[in-house]
Amino acid sequence: MKSIMFFCIPAHGHHNPTFPVVKELVNRGNTVRFYSFNEFKEKVEATGATFISCDAYLSEVEKEVESGEKTMSTIDMTIVDLQTTAKMDHFLHNEVEEFKPDVIVSDSVCFWGKLTARKYKIPMVVSTTTFAFNKQSASYMKSSFAEIMDLIKGQKRVNAELKNLEQYGYHEKSIMPLVQNDNYTDTIVYATEKYQPFSNTFSKHYAFVGPSVFSDYLPDKKNQRPLVYISLGTVVSNKPDFYKKCIEALRNENVDVIISCGRVVDPQSLNGLAENVKVYSTVNQLEVLSKANVFLTHNGMNSTSESLYMATPMVLFPQTNEQRAVARRAKEMGAGFELKGESVTEIHDAIMEVLNNGKYADAAMSCSDDFRSALGPKGAADFIEAAPHLMPKEDKKNIRREILPGVLQLVFWCVMIAFMFSFKALTGSDKWWIVAIVANVIFPFYKKLVARLV
Questions:
Q1: From CA 75, how far away is CA 87, in angstroms rounded?
Q2: d(CA 302, CA 12)
Q3: 232 and 201 fall within a common domain
Q4: Please, how many CA atoms are within 13 Å of residue 156, restricted to the half-sphere of its CB?
Q5: Across-strand partners of 50?
Q6: Apex CA 100: angle with CA 5 and CA 57, to 5°?
Q7: Model confidence pLDDT, tens digit, residues 163-192
Q8: What is the pLDDT of residues 402-414, one digit of tens each?
Q9: Pairing state between β 336-338 and 50-53
Q10: Rounded distance, CA 299 to CA 231, Å?
Q11: Direct distance between the N- and C-terminal alpha carbons of the chain, in angstroms, rounded to an integer
Q12: Domain count of the chain?
């Protein structure tokens, strides 16, 4: 039996998939300490794990973001998380010394969990509650120009925070190893191989276990009339005008509507606007989804996975880059229709499209079958108990896969540049620029060829 430290950020979508896994680990006799936040205490303790509160180390702005009262840019959140790591250093040092964990399981964006594992050289398993992102799957993440500029401008500030962490024994030269997936770190992904984009490009250090769900509910869509469920999650749910448009769009349709509006919007301000609509701050989402015929969602990974697990097709309304990636994949699987705008007409037409076209429900059912046949919490627990996964031959292949393409691309351009400089001597012509044009045309095909060969 192992002693295991679990770390997570203060977000429902990152906590929820871990609870069935933790419960499975505890039931097997492992000792688990879950470093979480007071809001999740009851759920953590229900798994049998020991709850350790980290609220004292959260900044006020982090609490506001989690409550939905405020949003932050990626750079600002990165900086705040690095500062939180510094605040927690002494506390976590004492915890490691006293508990002596065999393995650390850290959320993929929980810097203090990852850095603790690295500092004390403790085997680590990364818990990835969205898709795993590498060079191939990162194509699903499309940043706006403003977001790219924010990342560029904020890099100096991030580097300053990394420099500050050196005094605590954390020696990270770049933020990238903390935020991106690699092929050497043991990683659990709560998606199936079929659902994960480019799953074949990840190493054997990855376990695609599928959704981790606490539920005995089964899909049961035999309603007297169609049930429409609307929720934008817990972080970006402060959109009362949008909910009012949804109510207006559906008030005269022969459907029942349930809206989960989050903790910021007062449900009483929306209830009574239409007889067929009921609004709540929170609901038992899995129970509602088991009966719902369509789900208008922000496409958080957790909500989207639960929707497909319950065979519920979706109207896709992503709010962030990560959510856009999840929505794109759901659309590719045929299980969702994208909401292009926020007008009453667009909302109405999108929902009715999914309700009236059976292809979306069929695709959602296919995804449900795939999800329910996955490894699930038991497979995730097996993977954690077996960590670290030592694969010297596999890791050598990974090095070749990562380094060789860059080397061959460098060779390509060296040859092209040499040819340009010697073009006149070889051909007697001054039109060396022809080589540059041809090289730029050929290069994309060359990259694809190298990727296949490697």
A1: 19
A2: 9
A3: no
A4: 2
A5: 33
A6: 50
A7: 999 999 999 888 888 888 888 899 999 999
A8: 677 777 778 888 8
A9: unpaired
A10: 10
A11: 40
A12: 3
Provide the token pair at 316: 């896709």
Q: What are phi and psi of 154, to 5 degrees?
A: -85, -5
Structural domain that includes position 300: 227-372
Of 103, 58, 92, 56, nearest to 170 by C-alpha is 92
Q: Is residue 286 part of a domain?
A: yes
Q: What pLDDT score does 48 carry?
A: 98
pTM to 2 decimal places: 0.81
- Tell me: do 380 and 342 sit in the same domain: no
What token pair was written down for 192? 């199936």
Q: What is the mean pLDDT of residues 348-365?
A: 98
pLDDT of residue 149: 72
Identify the band that residue 119 occupies on the pLDDT scale cut at 50, 70 and 90.
very high
Same domain assignment for residues 332 and 294:
yes
- Do residues 182 and 317 share a domain? no
**In a domain? residue 29:** yes
> Are residues 130 and 232 part of one domain?
no
Contacts 24+ apart (CB under 8 A), 114-117: 114/7, 114/178, 115/85, 115/165, 115/170, 115/172, 115/178, 116/5, 116/7, 116/92
Residue 62: pLDDT band (50, 70, 90) is: low
Over the chain, what is the mean pLDDT?
89
Token pair recorded at residue 126:
């990364």
196 and 255 fall within a common domain? no
The CATH code of the domain that includes 160 is 3.40.50.2000
Pair (65, 47) in one structural domain: yes
